[in-house]
Design goal:
The protein is an alpha+beta fold. The chain folds into three domains: 237 residues, 3-Layer(aba) Sandwich (Ubiquitin C-terminal Hydrolase UCH-l3), CATH 3.40.532.10; 53 residues; 36 residues. Helix content is 48%, strand content 12%. Strands 1-6-2-3-4-5 form a six-stranded antiparallel beta sheet, with helices on both faces. The longest helix has 32 residues. The chain is globular, with a radius of gyration of 25 Å. One of its GO terms (biological process) is ubiquitin-dependent protein catabolic process. Keywords: Hydrolase, Protease, Thiol protease, Ubl conjugation pathway.
Length: 346
């Protein structure tokens, strides 16, 4: 940490940070765009893998009652997507003291980066033995840990590796349109994360000045019992017709968890043959097959999501035009659309 180095080292470190800040600000314009990322467990799981992280995956939550977490433990953190409201006051104190030396919090300084920001803030605070950060995020954490939140966010936004991984999850932009002033202000959606750090529950929102402290986790208490009412309160502040929320959990890789259970059950059956243990092993093997199928589906969906279909569409239109079928299909579709509009107005 900066406080533990000598005066000479401190001056050198401060000078190095100023140089990095200046270089980062100069390159912000050339840092490239960050694309929007869908709130999808497959997208987030593959994004984490792109970062080089192993041992974790993301699962979508359809409710936040106690029983939903039983088959997902250990739960390392929660990712929450909601409609962003400007100038909303934090529900609890924002941490700006020396706790930031032991909490990794990067402030968001660039648009559309909140998905990766929420995930990285969680991963770099996760000390569970199941989680392997990999060389890229390990080096990134070591390099930026002594920075302040703004400098961390600036460094993150200029990481070519992180940005490339982030943008690889997005749909391709096939057309460029002239920027137009919208007649109605578009809704903005934002990702934040919740997790326990050093015995307290924190909300990691990159648009804040620091983590929001939601209080201690008492001995024997589940941190999820603290955070679930907080999320419910946040949801209830919106109108009844607002349904655009998404909640996902960062959990240990299920295949790894099941394989570990099989190992311990196998050791037990060697000492004492039991039908229950053998049946449990068969059940776990089925769950592993389901996980393999799910991950294969994630890969297929990502390939479809990121594929450029424009050449296929152009070729199809050319074939239809040459066969003199394009215009009749167009007129028929136009007629159906006009009929639908008339029915709606009636």
């Amino acid at each position: 940490m900066v406080n533990n180095i000598s005066g000479y080292q401190y001056k050198c470190e401060a000078k190095k940070h100023k140089i990095i800040l200046k270089q980062a600000m100069l390159t912000m314009g050339s840092a490239g765009d960050w694309c929007t990322v869908e709130s999808d467990p497959g997208v987030f799981t593959l994004l984490i893998q792109k970062f080089g992280v192993k041992g974790v995956q993301v699962e979508e939550l359809w409710s936040i009652n106690d029983c939903i977490f039983e088959n997902l433990r250990p739960v390392h953190g929660l990712i929450f997507l909601f409609k962003y409201v400007q100038h909303e006051e934090p529900s609890n104190p924002v941490v700006t003291d020396n706790r930031l030396e032991n909490i990794y919090f990067a402030k968001q300084v660039i648009n559309n980066a909140c998905a990766s920001q929420a995930v990285i803030n969680m991963l770099l605070n996760c000390n569970h033995p199941d989680v392997y950060l990999g060389p890229e995020l390990t080096k990134f954490k070591e390099f930026t840990m002594s920075f302040d939140p703004y400098m961390r966010g600036l460094t993150l936004s200029n990481s070519q590796t992180i940005r490339a991984a982030h943008n690889s999850m997005s749909r391709p932009c096939l057309f460029e349109f002239d920027a137009k002033t919208p007649s109605k202000e578009e809704d903005a959606y934002h990702f934040i994360s919740y997790m326990p750090i050093n015995g307290r529950v924190y909300e990691l929102d990159g648009l804040r000045e620091g983590p929001i402290d939601h209080g201690p986790v008492n001995p024997g208490q589940d941190w999820l019992d603290i955070v679930c009412p907080i999320i419910c309160t946040k949801v209830n502040t919106y109108l009844d017709n607002e349904i655009n929320f998404s909640l996902m959990a960062l959990i240990s890789n299920r295949k790894m968890v099941y394989e570990r259970k099989i190992y311990y059950l196998t050791e037990d059956t060697r000492r004492m043959q039991t039908d229950e243990a053998e049946q449990e092993i068969r059940n776990l093997q089925m769950l592993i097959e389901l996980e393999d199928t799910k991950m294969m589906t994630y890969q297929q969906e990502l390939a479809r999501r990121t594929h450029n279909y424009l050449p296929f569409i152009i070729t199809l239109l050319q074939i239809l035009a040459e066969a003199k079928k394009l215009m009749p299909m167009y007129e028929k579709a136009k007629e159906r659309a006009l009929k639908r509009d008339r029915n709606l107005q009636a």
